[in-house]
Design a protein that fits this description.
single chain, alpha+beta, M1 Pyruvate Kinase, Domain 3, 3 helices, 14% helix, globular
Length: 202
Amino acid sequence: MKNTWAKGVVTGVFSAIARSLSPHPFVTVACETLFLDHSGLRGDLHSGSTRLAGPREPWLPRGLILRNDRQISALCVEELAEIAERLGLQALPPEWLGGNLLIEGLAGFSSIAPGSQLAFGGSWGGKGRFDGGAVLRVEAYNTPCRRAGRAVAAATDRKGLEFPFVKAATALRGLVLCVDLAGPISVGDAVVLIPPVVPKGG
C-alpha cells in the first residue's frame, strides 16, 4: 500500500541556549540548525532525559522525577497567524512562545495525534528508507499558559494580553515532542508526518 503521509517544511529553528534579551528564560532565539541528541537540545531549557513533576501532573507530588516528554516545542506558521489575528497583532514570533521549531504546511498541526512521528530532512519524501536527520515523537498537545501570555504582553507592550492570549491560543499552541532519532534539523528541511500505528481489530 502506498504511503500518503502529509508533508511540510521547517521555516525556523530556535534555541534558548543563546539567551535573548527577554526576562523570560523560555524565550528562544533564531539559529540555522538544531543538533539534537536523546536528551533533546543539549543546554536548552527543556533538555534532559528526565524532568520534574509539576502542575501538569496534579495527581503526583511535585518534584518526582519523570521521563522528559517535553524536550522540544514545535509551532505552526498558519496557527501563529491565526492567534495573532485574534489578538490584533501583526505577527506572533515563535520565539516569544519558546518555540524550537516552526513548521509550515501540516494541516491541523496542533491536533496531530500523540504517538505520531515527524521525520526531518533528506530526500526520501516518505517513500523507501529515511535518509534525513532527526525523528521526533509527538508526546502531547501544548496548552497555552499565562506565562507565555506575559511574555507576549511584554514583547508587545500590551499588558492586557496575558489572559486573552490563553483564550486565543487554545487548540493552536503547537506540540511537545521528544527525540526518537538523534540528528540535525535545519531551516528548509522537509517534514514527513508518520501517523501512529493503530492495531486492527479489537
